[in-house]
Specification:
isomerase; Tautomerase/MIF_sf; two-stranded antiparallel sheet; L-dopachrome isomerase; alpha/beta
Amino acid sequence: MPQLSLTTNVPVDAVVASDIIKDCSKALARVIGKPESYVMVSINGSVPMSFAASEEPAAYGELMSIGGIGPGVNGKLSAALAEILETKLSISRSRFYIKFDDVKGSNLGFNGSTF
């Protein structure tokens, strides 16, 4: 159940958002090794944001997953997602943070229950 939330100060129109969501979904499924049908991705653009005292293009992401992430995978995920943001939104890799959160299934609700 990987869930990725991206926030950026770059304006994101519906077409670009759709491309980013699709690319991120495929990358997460591939790198984590879970079916894409489990992956959820959202993006929120035009958010006031400062990074290193500058309002140049920047982004922040949070990835939550029940397993599949950790020291051996997080660097690969960070690189894959940074590549997408750099290609689609011209956000430098040096202006993107991502937080990884490996959660227990009992702490995540779905379908009226927990995992």
